[in-house]
Fold each of these.
Amino acid sequence: MLTHGSKRTPDSGDGCSTCATFVHDAPLSSDLHHWLRPLYVKLRTNPVFAQLAPSHQFNALVAAAEKESPSKAAQLREWNSTTQIALLSWLNDVVAQQPDPSREVERWRVRKGERELVCVAVYVPTGIDLRLMEAADFRRTQLVRDASEAEALCERWRAALMERGWGSCRNPPNSAATVIQRSRA
């Protein structure tokens, strides 16, 4: 699932033909196990999952994780029962706080003429994969280890694009940043 804000079009009425939309609805996480959250949420939708013993719940989680990363799943299998239960408990708490975790988080969009680029952070077993996309095509991608490194790289990419003529406009009327600004006023 991709979370994102409102798009801005060249004919949006403010005379801006190039624009940048910033989307920071969901802060990036440096959590090494963030990639497991959507898997755990999917498992929890099955009512039988809650009735399973923790060891069986953990085995189900590892089986789901194996589809994304066999090597990380193999590492999880080596954990002792105390660590397994701690991870399940932690996932349960985190999912209770954020019931719809996103594997992909849109950071910003820029537009120049008819072209639009989107910067997306994707949680993978080995870190955060930053992707600069144009429609379904990769323009650039880089794997980083934590959220602070991802945020810095996102900003460098955006700044470089702006130097190349990708302009910036005020936030769209219904973007999260605009709504927050209005609520503070």
Note: Strands lie at 2-3, 18-22, 104-112, 115-124, 127-134, 137-144.
Amino acid sequence: MILSQGKYPFGTIITRMSDGDVQFVISTSKEGWLRGLTTYVQLPTGTTAAKVFYMPSMNKPAIHAIHSMLVESIEENLKAGGHLAIILHDLLLSLRDSQYTQEVVIDCNLTDYVTSLRGDTEQIPESKTAAEQGDAQAQYELGLCYRFGEGVAKNDIEVVKWMRKAAEQGHATAQNLLGNCYYQGEGAAKDDAEAAKWWRKAAEQGHASAQFHLGLCYHKGEGVAKDDMEVVKWFRKAAEQGDADAQYNLGVCYRDGQGVAQDDADAVKWWLKAAEQGYASAQLNLGIRYREGKGVGKNEAEAVKWYRKAAEQGDADAQYDLGLCYAKGIGVAQNAADVVKWWRKAAEQGHATAQKLLDAGAGGVRDAA
């Protein structure tokens, strides 16, 4: 049954459901940093399992339509006597066939719980037959099963085996994941050149995450020669699809004049896009730019706004800067208690300046903790 449902900032809709044993939250957002749908499950064991799938090419109405469809489907199955955990697990599996999903991740805690409910023993997924017959999507799905231990024991070598088969048939998401495997050295020897090769294949098909990672390869000179122009090229392609990592890093390129003419206004432009998706480092940089009036009109209240957003996500530099605003009355009224609050949070993360100022009682404050 639905416990609550509401709309929140950044185009987010959140629905809370329960069947008595399992608490379930489904959240969809166009601007959230995961940009798509996230679900959280509180199991009777007390373990919280998070599931995510990404839909970067979908607009807000389409994402919200998916949200409504899932809620309706879950309600129908609950009325028919289904168990919420099993319903959710099977729905997420079915969503892997969607043309809009890049990847569906099903946490092993949920898989194990569903397995215990069904009394299943380890068995080869049904997709293996199709995979062995050469179906690229089935090969990709079987690779995911081995990656997350769904129906089979986790096996990184098998992940690489099946991802490669799908990738060689042009499956972009498999190509991207195969690149990840080579870069991380999981299931195969670490090989930056192979990682770059497979990311390029996926990137050329428009896979945003692969485009971002290929840009990083050119930035670090991993698997390819360093090339700032290529860095900007691939970051831009991913950024234009809404990839927050790429948007942030493209902003850095504009700030530093790396691979592109230096332009503070364009740096702010891309950081704003990433910041609106909840990207903490971009939020921090926006705070700095609004405070300095560099690349954007000086606005101390806006500076505080973005510092706060990053600080609330745990960014130590933002916590320090927000405390400084309270100490000096920049964009907010001076408030010693808030200075201590935010500098203490920064200090607890190892921010040396925050700790030093607390110890010294700078700005008329001292940490009494």
Note: Residues 279-369 form a domain with the Serine Threonine Protein Phosphatase 5, Tetratricopeptide repeat fold (CATH 1.25.40.10).
Amino acid sequence: MGRTATNASRPNMGDRMKIDKYDKIFSQVVREAADWECEICHRSNIRMECSHDRSRRYVLTRYDPRNAICSCSGCHRRTTESADDHVESFRRIKGSEVRQLMRELSNSRGRLKKFEREAIHKHYKRELGRIKALRMNGKVGKIEVEVPEVLL
């Protein structure tokens, strides 16, 4: 996470975005929930990243687990560079209805206040603890991540 490829077919993808504590905890939750397995190629034991369907620049979908998957760095790069691969991968993993919802949310002009971002951070710290506890108890595979109330 942290590097963004420039691509003329996907505007503003070349802009570097700051990664803050909210991005870090969200990324960790997404990767842990996927059991550190790429949701595109299903490889594991390699570098995993949090890949967003709608760009992180869209505030209302930036921290929404319905807008993110765990991907290896190779798949993340490929889907960032190819709009067709990106659409196909997210459609297959998340479904057309979720993609449409994320598109609608990202097109709204809402903002998150500081206390809302803090609530999201707290929510994902709890989610990470819940997911890790499930892993300690032998749970393997994908674990669904709850959407923070502030994003519903």
Note: The chain has six helices and two strands.
Amino acid sequence: MNPPKNWVDDINELLSRLYGDFAVPYEDITLAYLHKMIRQPNKVFVLALDTTSHPHRIVGMGSIFFLHTTHGKTAFVEDIAVRRDYRRRGIGTAIVKKIISCAQKHKALYADLTSQKKRRAARRIYRRFGFEDYNTTLFSLDLSPKINRP
């Protein structure tokens, strides 16, 4: 798949809102980096498109990657986001539903995700699908002062 260039801008807009005030290293992705991510065999992207716009815009997204861990094959869910002006239309629910279906298709035993406490609407969707809050804290170690992406 060769994503159109405007998708890079759409994804960066979604990610900047998702990670804007979160303490993780974040830098805009490039078209080359998007190509690299899409080609990973253990990663799946779910995109919600507005097909009425030209060119088509990404209005929601999520991704999932798979690892074999000590407790079995695990699906890690990342970057679920919906543009503000497209919220409350069932897009987030559809993305989560598709991601769970993908995890089941890949025979994952678990699906894990993290979500900031302030993202109440997203957390309601996750709970509705059976995700449980394990009352854990995410620890992150920044190993580089700047992300180096092609």
Note: The chain has a mean pLDDT of 84.
